[in-house]
Amino acid sequence: MALSVLILAAGKGTRMNSNSPKVLHHVGNIPMIYYSINLAIKAKAKNIGIVISKDATEIKNFIKSLSINIKLFVQSNQLGTGHAILSAKEFETKSEDLIILYGDCPLITVDTIKKLINTKKKGADLSVLGFLSNNQKEYGRMVVDKNNNLSKIIEYKDADKNEKNIKFCNSGVIISKAKILFSLLNQISNNNSAEEFYLTDIVSLANKQGLIVKSVYCNEAEAQGVNNRQDLSEVELEFQKNKRLEILDNGVTLKDPSSVYFSYDTEIDQDSIVEPNVIFGPGVKIKKNVLIKSFSYLEGCQVDPNVVIGPFARIRPQTVLEHGVKVGNFVEIKQSTLSQNVKVNHLSYVGDGKIGKNSNIGAGTIFCNYDGNKKYNINISSNTFVGSNVSLVAPLEIGESVTIGAGSTITDDISDKELAIGRARQINKRKK
Questions:
Q1: Which strand (E) or helix (H) includes residue 321?
Q2: Per the residue annotation, which of 26, 83, 323, 346 is the catalytic one?
Q3: Strand, helix or coil at 90?
Q4: If you write DSSP's letter for every residue of 177-235 in order, what string do you get?
Q5: Residue environment code for 119-136, b if the CB has 16+ CB neighbours within 10 A, otherwise e
């Protein structure tokens, strides 16, 4: 049997003051529980389980959307972390080693989990992840003896004044042999101020039974959990800081890193440049040598090399910008493919369209793709010139090397090499 990971996500999260479950609040534009699931995958867990409450329909739906083999366990009553793990008792026999993670701690890295696993390989029966902190948050305090063994963890609400001054704090993340963990959990009680079954009580119990209990350090920011909106904003800032460093290390220039915001899955290749105040929604893949100018917003798109975007451009999902495309200021593109060297430089909307290579779309051009009931496509072939302030009323097929006069409203297909003008004739009259 191999490694298993159990993620605890049954907490009420009342301090979030929200109608949504705490673990579904977003960090990097995805529910924060995603990061614990992804961490389990990176750690090569054979089995992944999540403990949820009995009313967690939204969490179930999100897990289902991931198409990952995850076992859900229901904690019938919120009686503490120890009780939550006992809700997943089948993992006792399905697992050799078991890691406990949390759905509201999205910043823990796979390198830290590997350190935790290594302590287990070196002989620890139980190992706990901790961090040093100078603040007075209500973290459990970890007591290490002279032999560097973890002797006990004291819950903050049960700690005395001296114990609260301990700076080594508990993250809650642990690794143990599954059989040892469940055996210890079956022996703990809820004789404490909260009348809950604390997972942390197993540390003292393990020491009394002569088991080897160790600890591993990580930094405080990595271990931060989310209990309220302030915590959520702090975790988001830390995520963005880490993502910016990742993007910079990949050979990308960020002119003002602190003003650029990324999603969990943003990918940008070498020698691309991102100017200040750019936001990346989910699903953005940027290839080499792309320039993204200030105040642009991108989501769900693929951008090929040597493309220029912005400033003030909006690139929406299912958009592909091929090599050499230029998308200028106040241009919105949605569910469209712009082929090589297409230019849409000013004040235009392109939706549900395909534009052939080397075509030019003039300022103020609008793809009228929606009739109030259904959306239709507009296909423009290569080397076509569309003048300014043109309305293209879908569905339309426009051929190669076509010229469309400025100010036209086009409702009929246009064949190759035709000039199309669709506007009322100008009449000039002398003033009286």
A1: strand 319-321
A2: 346
A3: coil
A4: EHHHHHHHHTT----STT----TTHHHHHHHHTT--EEEEE--HHHH---SSHHHHHHH
A5: bbeeebbbbbbbbebeee
Distances from the Cα of 57 to the Cα of 14, 31, 62, angstroms: 17, 14, 9
- Average pLDDT across each block of 10 residues of the chain; the chain has 432 residues. List them in order: 90 90 97 98 96 94 94 89 92 91 97 95 95 86 91 88 90 96 91 78 95 95 95 98 98 98 98 98 98 98 98 98 98 98 97 98 97 96 98 98 97 97 88 84
The gap from C-alpha 63 to its chain's centroid, in whole angstroms, comes to 14
CATH of the domain at 289: 2.160.10.10
> Per the structure block, which two tokens stand in for 203?
């540390």
Q: Is residue 56 a part of any domain in this protein?
A: yes
Q: How many CB atoms lie within 10 A of CB 186?
A: 11
Residues 202 and 316 in one domain: no
State whether 216 and 168 are in the same domain.
yes
Q: Within 317-430, where are the H helices? A: none
CA distance 328 to 314: 10
Burial class (CB in 10 A: 0-12, 13-18, 19+), 146: exposed
Dist CA 304 CA 4 (whole Å): 40
Encoded amino acid at 172, one letter: G
Number of neighbours of residue 418 by Cβ within 10 angstroms: 14
For residue 395, whether the previous peptide bond is cis, meaning omega lies within 30 degrees of 0, is yes
> What tokens were used for 411?
């409702």
Residue 37 lies in a domain: yes
The CATH number covering residue 23 comes to 3.90.550.10
The total number of structural domains in the chain stands at 2
Question: What is the reported pTM?
Answer: 0.92
Q: Does a structural domain hold residue 210?
A: yes
Maximum separation of any 2 CA atoms in the chain, in Å: 108
- Which structural domain, as residue segments, surrounds residue 356? 251-420
Q: Any catalytic annotation for residue 25?
A: no
- On whether both 351 and 269 belong to a single domain, the answer is yes
